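For anyone still unconvinced, we reproduce a single protein record, the chain in one-letter code, the fold tokenised, and leave readers to judge:
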Amino acid sequence: MVWKPKEKELTRDEAVKLAREEVAPYWIGSPPLVVAAQAGAMPRLFPIHQKFEEGPWLIHFLDPTTFGSETLIHYIQTLDQRYSRYGIQTLIILWPVYDHHLQRPVLESFANSHRIRHPMAVDYNRLMCAALGVRQFPLTLLIEKGATVARTEAGAIDAIDAQIQKYLRDRDPGLPLHPILTRDPSMPKDVSSLELGKEKKAPKAKFKGSWTQDLEGVTTADKTATLSFAAPSNGVGIVAAAQGKTIEAAKVFLEAAGVPAYDSHLDLDVRHDESGEPYVEVREPRLYHALHHLTDDLRTITLRFPAADRIPVKIFGIRFFTQA
């Protein structure tokens, strides 16, 4: 029998230091505040920064590939401006839908593009969501001393605001608070999604040309390739990324009912080429806004990739939304 030296048992401070170092790459705008770890049959949250134990926290759980989460981000700053004066702090936690959500440059780009100024973390091992029973996104929790005191699913802004105000007025009935927030009816609402990775099968998508498929999506370097599908709603977003080591953007051209999509239906991330045809300019992996307010006769969508032989493009999935 070979003698092995007994491993030194870590002190609490040493364990906290190791935990901070492990999760630091997954936190933006703040040192790590809390970690989740398996504790028996169920994961639990463990504060690793004194700040997390100071007062209540409003924690917003987001799927970075949905329009509902983008809508919630639109209101997070307003909620913080209203309630930070009462000691309620804000934390944003992202669900890693794809592997690239675990890459720090992608997280930094997401925070910058959405002008996020609050602490943000990705649930890299998916234990934070499990510890708090979060199974759908977006979702907001109001937590105090580790206990959930309010829970609002589906990003219902008015319900979130009403529950925060109830929490505050239970402690001080005379607080002078703002009227309850109402959601802007013009903001997009998620309808469904089409995933293109292996085992997803994507039965509603039609491919032409040369494609390769992995667990997360499909990639083409074929300038004749097309991807077609029927949109079940009046809005379309694309989760995509340019491939290869290049600073240039990939181009995803948009057709509706067999012709270039009309200008009146083009969304935020669409440009025009020299001939006036519309395309989505794709760079880092993220959700791109493509089409909105499609009429029923224009919902047969075809994506073309005439520059893919120079800059290949990967499509992770399609997101469908409705917009008034």
About this structure: The first strand starts at residue 27 and ends at 28. The chain has a mean pLDDT of 91. The two ends are 74 Å apart (CA to CA).
